[in-house]
Write a structure and sequence with these properties.
The complex is a heterodimer of chains A (287) and B (328). Chain A is of the alpha/beta class and 287 residues long. Helix content of chain A is 34%, strand content 26%. Classes of the chains: A alpha/beta (287), B mainly alpha (328).
Chain lengths: 287, 328
């Protein structure tokens, strides 16, 4: 593992994001119950939990896609109100959605720059999209990410992995502004080789000083790339673990039975309730 | 009928085979179809391929095109404005009524366009606030506007005997004024849709509204813009139409929304949103007008015009639905 020097009690300054007491209901379903999340500056925080544990809801609240019923959000120690994706962006929060939010009817460069198009003025008057700049900067960006995609290609014809790369390129295109990147299942739809490339990219973001929250169902992958992991169960955070000091089995055990059982159960997660978790355990062997 | 359909398909098939690489855009296919149609009609009737006939066809179809350009912009943003026919009528009635009341021509025209934009604002409220599907909302508004026109203007049309009011009957530099109107509208709207950041965002909003929200685009704001532009252009088309007719006509432009929608879909727009080409729409409007004109000159019964228009629409949309079909 890389430099995971983790002091037991982080200074408040170390936290770039602090979400406290977040509650969200959808009709009768309580998606989040008093959930907390702390993201340290320059770390990769894994966010795991069973389906319906509230992972996506929590990060969508941070990204301004949905609004919490109650709770507080601080960015760099200041209380903030995030009610739209636009306001999240203004605090440097950029999200890569599970559905990728790509536009099949536009080309790669337009997808990367949508909403933030470089523009010029024709005859000093008429606004126009500066496609030359857009293409060149997209090409540079894709090259930096070591991805071979034509900026002029229509996004509709790209493979799953390529689409993921375009979404990542968009999230990091304005890296100087985006200090926090949230990824919802970045590797879920990818094959092993493509998934490895994505993880490499995530490490690269941390090396640039970006703080990352990564949702994933693949526990071994989270332990490999993240510094810490936050485990949600039934809408609440039940454990925060340093990845250096935990195992796939321990994580799965907490996901399945919650933190109360976690202390008393040091065995492996033999009672996995879903196929998905069983597969994760098998896949990993022992860390 | 079966025979002629097979022929059309064969022609399309041959063109597609020969030009597979270049023929990826519906606009190009439309251009080929238009050329073929003009050629066939010209061969069948010597009066068809004459400058005067083509010019008058262009002039008569220009009001449809001006409104259809707005429809295409709205369709690109994923909203469909079926109220355009009613808006054309009521804007024309407003224009004529204001002019008759002594309002100067430019102000009367501006009043007509503003009325159009007002109808667009109503559409916007229904679509973005009440969350009614745009096709249903604008269909309702179409009937309401038609009813208002008949209530206010009566059933009979009123002549406006004035050369100033009938400005659209004049020529300018050898072309009818409405044709110049179409030229300006096609340049401005195509530039807007294809080359400006806002045009690109409209297409993004139309192609994937959920995704647009996720990347911080204000979907309702862009749809508002699209619907107001659509209604404003319908208003402009209505003013030119009133000027060509030279009358206040509350029964005018009936069924025009169907021709406009047909042209936009022929030109490459899609019911799923995010696609649409003003240039494609322009060619489609001219294609439909030429077809109508040609069949009338060949003294065919009107039923045949409907059959031919419907067939062309279905074939064109089937071709456009290929994965590679579409704008850009």
């Amino acid at each position: 593992m890389d430099e995971t020097e983790s002091p037991p009690e982080p200074q408040v300054d170390d936290l770039i994001v602090r979400m406290r007491g977040i509650t969200k209901r959808f009709g009768h379903v309580e998606a989040l119950r008093n959930a907390d999340l702390e993201l340290r500056r320059g770390e990769i925080l894994g966010l795991v939990g069973d389906n319906g544990a509230g992972k996506s809801t929590l990060v969508k609240i941070l990204a301004g896609i949905i609004q919490a019923d109650s709770g507080e959000i601080e960015v760099s120690g200041n209380a903030v109100l995030i009610d739209t994706a636009q306001s999240a962006r203004s605090y440097g929060i950029e999200m890569i959605h599970q559905d990728l939010a790509l536009f099949n009817n536009l080309d790669v460069a337009a997808n990367v720059f949508i909403g933030r198009e470089p523009s010029g003025r024709l005859l000093g008057l008429l606004p126009y999209t500066n496609r030359a700049v857009m293409r060149r900067r997209t090409a540079q960006l894709l090259e930096r990410l070591s991805v071979d995609i034509d900026p002029n290609a229509s996004v509709g014809v790209l493979s799953g992995g390529q689409r993921q790369m375009v979404a990542i390129a968009r999230a990091v295109a304005f890296e100087s502004d985006s200090k926090i990147i949230v990824m919802d299942e970045p590797s879920a739809a990818l094959g092993p080789a493509e998934a490895a490339t994505v993880l490499e990219l995530v490490r690269g973001l941390r090396a640039h000083g970006t703080s990352v929250i990564m949702i994933s169902h693949r526990i071994p992958e989270v332990l490999e790339v993240a510094d810490r992991v936050l485990i949600l169960k039934a809408g609440r955070g039940v454990a925060v673990l340093d990845t250096a000091n935990t195992t796939v089995e321990e994580c799965v055990s907490i996901i399945v039975s919650g933190a109360a059982d976690w202390a008393s159960r040091t065995q492996t997660g033999s009672s996995s309730s879903t196929l998905e978790q069983t597969a994760s355990v098998k896949h990993s062997g022992r860390g | 009928m079966v025979e002629s359909r097979r022929d059309t398909t064969a022609i399309h098939g041959g063109v597609r085979l020969a030009l597979r690489k270049q023929a990826s855009s519906p606009t190009f296919l439309l251009f080929v179809t238009l050329v073929v149609l003009l050629g066939v009609m010209g061969a069948a009737k010597s009066t068809f391929l004459t400058t005067s006939n083509l010019t008058s066809t262009a002039a008569l179809s220009s009001t449809t095109f001006i409104a259809a350009a707005g429809f295409t912009i709205a369709a690109s943003a994923g909203v469909f404005d079926l109220s355009v026919g009613g808006t054309m009528m009521l804007s024309g009635v407003t224009f004529g009524t204001l002019f008759q009341a002594g309002v100067p021509l430019p102000l009367a025209a501006m009043g007509g366009v503003l009325l159009g934009a007002g109808i667009g604002t109503v559409n916007t409220f229904l679509v973005t606030k009440l969350r009614i599907n745009s096709i249903i909302a604008t269909l309702g508004v179409l009937f309401i506007v038609r009813g208002i026109g008949l209530e206010v203007g009566g059933r009979r049309s009123t002549q406006v005997v004035s050369d100033a009011f009938r400005f659209a009957r004049r020529d300018l530099l050898g072309l009818p004024v409405p044709v110049w109107g179409s030229i300006v509208v096609v340049i401005v709207t195509h530039y807007f849709l294809a080359y400006t950041p806002i045009g690109q965002r409209l297409r993004a909003v139309g192609g994937n509204p959920d995704g647009a929200r996720e990347v911080a685009l204000n979907v309702d704001r862009y749809r508002t813009m699209a619907l107001v532009v659509s209604a404003g252009l319908a208003g402009l088309g209505g003013i030119v139409l009133a000027s060509i007719i030279g009358a206040i006509d509350p029964q005018g432009a009936i069924g025009r929304e169907i021709v406009i929608a047909t042209a936009a879909f022929l030109g490459g727009a899609s019911l799923t949103g995010g696609r649409g080409s003003v240039i494609g729409t322009l060619m489609a409007v001219f294609l439909l007008a030429s077809l109508f004109n040609g069949l009338v000159q060949l003294a065919l019964r009107p039923e045949w015009i409907d059959i031919a228009s419907g067939t062309i629409l279905v074939v064109a949309v089937a071709i456009n639905q290929r994965p590679s079909g579409g704008f850009r």
